[in-house]
Amino acid sequence: MLPGICNSPNSRTRTGLLGRIPACFALLILFFLGSAGMASAQSLAGLGALSGTVHDPSGAVVPNADVEIVNKSLGIDRKLKSTDAGLFFAPSLPPDPGYSVIVTVPGFGVAKTDGIVVHVGEQVAVPVQLGSASTTQTVSVSENTQPILDLAKTEVSALVNQEQITNLPINGRRVDQFALLTPGVVQDGTSGELSFHGVPSGNEFLQDGIDITQQWSVSNAGGGGSALSNISMDAIQEFRTEIFGYSAEFGRGSGGVVNSLTKSGSNEFHGNAFWFFRNRTLNATDPFSKLNGQPYNAPEYRHQYGANVGGPILKDKLFFFGAYEGTTRNFPLVSSIINSSILDGNGQLLPGQCTAAAIQCAAVQKYINSFFRTVNRNLHQNDGFLRLDYRPNEKSTYTANFNLMNYFATHDGVSAVAPTDGSGASGSNYNIGTHVRNARLSNTYIVSPSMVNEFRFGFNAERRFQGLPTDLLPPDNILSSVTVAGQGNLGVSINQLPNIQPTEKRFILADTFSQSAGKHQLKYGADLAYLRSVENAVFSGPGSFTYNTFTDFAYDLTPLPGDPVNSNPASPLTGPSKHYSTFAQAIGHPITGITIRDYDFFAQDQYQIAKTLLLNLGLRYEYSTFTQPPAPSYASVNSAVGPINQPKTNFAPRVGFTYSMNNNTTVLRGNYGIFYNRLPGASITRLQQLGGIVRKSFTLSDNNPAQFAAMLPFAQVFTSLSQVNSFISPSSINTGFAIPGLATPYVQEWSLGVEQQLTKDMSFSVSYVGSRGIKFLQRSDLNAGQPTGQDFYNVFDVNGHQTGSYSTPVYLNAANGNTTYNPNFGKILQIDNGGRLWYDGLVAEFHQRENKYIQSTIAYTWSHSEDLGQGTATSNYYFTDQGDTYFNGSSSFNGRSGYSFEKGRSLEDQRHRLVMTALISYPKADYGSKWTREALSGWQLAPIFTFATPQYVDSNLTVTSSDSRLYVPSPTLSGIGAEAPGGIRAPFVPTANLPLGQTVQLDGRLTKSFALPKSQSIQLSFEAINALNHIHYTSVNQTAYTSSWNAATNTGTIKAVSGAGQGTAASGFPDGTNARRAQASLRYTF
After folding, report:
1. Helix (H, G, I), strand (E, B) or coil at 465
2. Residues of the chain where predicted confidence (pLDDT) is lower than 50
3. How far are the Cα atoms of 418, 658, 711, 947 from residue 156, in angstroms, in the given order?
4. How many domains would you assign to the chain?
5. H-type helices in 395-506, by residue range?
6. 977 lies in some domain
7. Is residue 264 part of a domain?
8. Structural domain harbouring 191
9. Which are the contacts of 649, defined by CB distance < 8 A and separation ≥ 6?
């Protein structure tokens, strides 16, 4: 029995019919559906399909025709019958070239079509026209002669085929990066993650039909920006990106689907061995990589090597395929700090930044100097893959595969090759070890000539270890996070190190049943998943110290007799080493385990209404249960809070159509659907910890005399819950919970487009696509109340000239009018559904399929993405104990939700993106002598050109001193005390108004192939990523303003600072830079 699936889910809120259904009954439903006889419009995830209509010589449909599907290479021989409407449908076929369709009807001749190519996620239509009796009509086709338009496709999707995967240039050999070749997809930060149509952290990754998505962060397995890949690229045959309007078979994500297929063995032995090598010789220097003020190209090297082989064990019966890939790399980083508001170009503190004693300021400068250095990094990764396919008879096929990945790297917590925020040489740059395991066992069974059943079992395991970098720890035994004057990364990671974050194990049972009936191709399916996730970490466990100025930091870093007391007038007289403005920490048990159970069902009907009109109708249902957190401390006030809601009404209808015109050379497509997100494992984990029961999380401020009295001297932290309970009052202990009735975030999508065949080898499509994200997770603080005060600021430009004034509503503390404040709690964090997304786009794609000279694609996207401050991926799953918006979302202000003031350009927004690819082969001809033929033949050029307009980030404001009457004096001007993005943005300018870099990038690979006897060959390649070295910034200086407060006059000053918008990083996956990288490779193929 699958662990946990047939146990009653842990829930304190299970009511109604579904609430009383035992999980084991859902398992019975799965197998009942497997005998109920229905099927689908779309091919099975990880597989392909063939379909067609049989016509007699007069054009009438022919029912009950004998149809045989044959693939000699794979040992497939499947026998079908056409329906009353003359339709035949062969689902669950392994994608492969070389399929044949043979149709036989008594009284007519035999019709045979050879050379059919089936791709993953594709349903190939095969027209069949019978001839007169005693004749055999054989039509030989290839991928180049099959119809270029897919008349059964209603979604917006794109295929990346084996030729592209093998021959296009790629850096790091992570195959899902080729998804960026398709329209509607942008990079989500610089960690290698993807965003589809403006949705952060909402994708599904399938491998041979098994969901391998890491639930913790809703990313690809091994995600998080460290591991190069989770599987050898040579183990992937092809993949399809499902972008908009995909079928009900796909779920658990509101972004896109990367649907990949692994290679299999056949009746012929085949394989290859490869080696990729590079060093710094032809690499360009990152513009921020400098030592002593001079450009420095750090010495590095990378070896990627491996081999794979596949073939028969028993001809036509048992096949194998295995692959191995290894990587070793040495890649030092160059650390620095670029912050024009505190440092000059040489890393020296600006005049006035430190006014303590000279010896104290010198100690601070020495401390800062330690972040200007090189840091050695080493990486080792090994990937192994094995697949077996067994066909004991023509009715049944068994497939088993196993994949593993082991990764370890030192000082890889910071991916950038030249970080300019100090993190590279700080205790935040931890060591990483990641292990990934994927296994699959499936059976495809031909129930009858019109019925096929597909059963799948999957297992995924992942473990990510993050180790303390002892060689990068700050001096003077500082083992906490430190931020001074807005400059972070001056201590260690705020996340306790070492840690394991997370260990995940997922078990999956899935079954899909397909049947042809009349004009319908039907599919029903179910998918049960059990996930166990364990975190061994305490977020904010090391504690974090925040200083307003370097002067205050100097007093605590090097205490001297006679140092002044804390500069905040609200603070009582104190001893030394307590000049910081706030201290935050969490104390409690480090291990948190959660369980997530998914019960998903779908039904799909592909209805061929007429010869030119096809309709896709689908319905998906998703139900999830979660480990419930202990009742939060706030339950004493509101007993309804605490449980995580488990919605029972997550129905997701899908509808699509395709209408073909002009003799099938023009296709009109449209679709609409609802797509639910999965709740990240990190979010469910954090909800176990937020309540203030198993962990105590608190923030102490020098603005509060009682809290200040509880503060420890700098660098000392609390070590036990009993110590916290003894020294800290309940008014400082935070609590948090999910809002009662928390809904599952979802997206409504729609598209309408047309695809036109230009020639037999060329097509062009254009579509309008739109989506609205609803009920995405947001955070607010119930203890903040309404913004009942008003603060006034005089605004000055960088030259000190006053340019105007600004007033902002502010949240006050209890002593100054916050009547809703509950003194029994610190912050009362509420997780709710206040988030919204808006996306509108135009996607266009040109496709020229392979001929003997060239294969090419052009993908263009115009889009506009807005949200309510959702941020990028990380902001949406691992939240802290505070909100992230300038105004509190839990209460309305001026008749509007506090979240609504964040509406603006999304951080995922990219208005224009153009990607062009080509595989250009030198034409074969008789060039005379043997040596001339060898010299001139076998050449291939493979370029990728990318143009993309900038993404944008917020202009931020750094609070250096604040109004002591505020609820939380910093870092938010409004006094709400929120974090990035909304909590530190300048509220008087539009959101996301600072552009990052514009991408103009040309990648290229040049290959020379040498033919050897017996179908063997050797390929020598040279490739360059960003060959023209056009640098684009991935980070800019966001500090545009600073603010200070005059307690005597109760007015403030806002001053613009120089340097806002200047580049601070040119990162990129997987090297941490987008400066040119070049490598050579050798491949042997047989």
Report:
1. strand
2. 1-6, 8-43, 572-573
3. 38, 12, 57, 22
4. 2
5. none
6. yes
7. yes
8. 172-274
9. none
